[in-house]
Amino acid sequence: MEAENSEVAALVEKITGLHAAISKLASLSPSPEVDALFTELVAACVPSSPVDVTKLGPEAQEMRQDLIRLCSAAEGLLEAHYSNMLTALDNPLDHLGRFPYFDNYINLSKLEHDLLAGHVAAPARVAFIGSGPLPFSSLFLAMYHLPDTRFDNYDRCSVANGRAMKLVGAADEGVRARMAFHTAEVADLTAELGAYDVVFLAALVGMTSEEKANTIAHLGKHMADGAVLVARSAHGARAFLYPVVELDDIGRGGFQVLAVHHPAGDEVFNSFIVARKQEHISTVGTIGCSWQHECIWTTIEGVADGEMSFK
Ligand SMILES: C[S@@+](CC[C@H](N)C(=O)[O-])C[C@H]1O[C@@H](n2cnc3c(N)ncnc32)[C@H](O)[C@@H]1O
Question: SUPFAM superfamilies, alphabetically (predicted)?
Fold first, then answer.
């Protein structure tokens, strides 16, 4: 226990130092200095770690919240920079690998699809909320995993949507025709949410657990019964980079948790939760799973569909 505490203390000290350096940057736009600091931050947060951010002191909590805000702004600028760079090339889709976190999105969209496939065979309509200027998540699902699905991408930033449409405009007709973009704040979406078989909630929509909870409650109010939510979250030290979605908030939002995936290794940064909209709010609890594995949750009244699967 002693060793674990000192490991956590050393990690928090390192991240605090990186937060201080990032906070001093004149701009968060990509540059050798910005790239170096964020590469060091990701390298510090990705390895598995015993850190539990809910147990941080108030000062470290405040630092973490500000760091998530800085990471969100930097990610938006990084995606805009690469979206501009890629769409200036001939055949942009042949060069997507130039984006530094390309592999993360290739692996993440495959993981999300494979876990989703066990609960939604062939979704006709999918919404991706928080698609950004580089909509890799929905683009890779459309290109590689869901050839007949229509995707509605929502982002509150019209400039991000403009960039995204330009990039997707370079895709082949079969993909282009199935990808639509809408400028909207998630809180303003209501009846339209009832049309989707699956709704993805991007990691950076909602900066705090409270904002995430409110957004999930809003989605629960308007999504169709039986529809599936895929909410991106964070675990361990990665919770210094992204907000955490609390499983209780998924349940309170009217969803039953079907699976939780915390990626081990460094092939994917984001955790994600797959949950089904219930006609009534059921109380859910775990039948036990270790953090490296996906696990199937059960309602207290009975066993949820599907087996406990540990890889
Ligand atoms: C930078 S992108 C990152 C998405 C990432 N590429 C992915 O696939 O998860 C996050 C986007 O979420 C959008 N966003 C943040 N909060 C939002 C909200 N409340 N409603 C709609 N869009 C939002 C931002 O405008 C931003 O473009």
Answer: S-adenosyl-L-methionine-dependent methyltransferases (SSF53335)
For residue 298, give the nearest of 250, 256, 245, 249 by alpha carbon. 256
Closest-lying ligand 1 atom to the alpha carbon of residue 157: 25
Number of separate domains in the chain: 2
List Cβ neighbours of 222 (8 Å cut-off, separation of 6 or more). 189, 190, 191, 193, 194
- Same-domain pairing of 145 and 59: no
Same-domain check for residues 119 and 253: yes
- CATH of residue 251: 3.40.50.150
pLDDT tens per residue across span 35-85: 999 999 999 999 888 899 999 999 999 999 999 999 999 999 999 999 999
Best of 29, 126, 151, 156 for a ligand 1 pocket test (most atoms within 8 Å of beta carbon): 156
CB atoms within 10 A of CB 173: 7
The domain of 80 spans: 1-94
